[in-house]
Hints:
By secondary structure, the chain is mainly alpha-helical.
Amino acid sequence: xxxxxxxxxxxxxxxxxxxxxxxxxxxxxxxxxxxxxxxxxxxxxxxxxxxxxxxxxxxxxxxxxxxxxxxxxxxxxxxxxxxxxxxxxxxxxx
Length: 94
């Protein structure tokens, strides 16, 4: 039980860390903002379909943490595909 609680705490904290990205040469802050908006829009569509089956198996805090982790990881992947490298608060830092 203690291990399960520890996992939920770690997953919850992952969602709290703010991500910082390296803006590559040749790209502007405006380019970064546009990429961020695109990735955020894509991220709004993630997570809803997995909540119903998982909620039966896990406490609600665990479900929320898992969905937040998934969204953060997906956002990070989207930004990487657009050329922006996460340098702080990244999913893979944990």
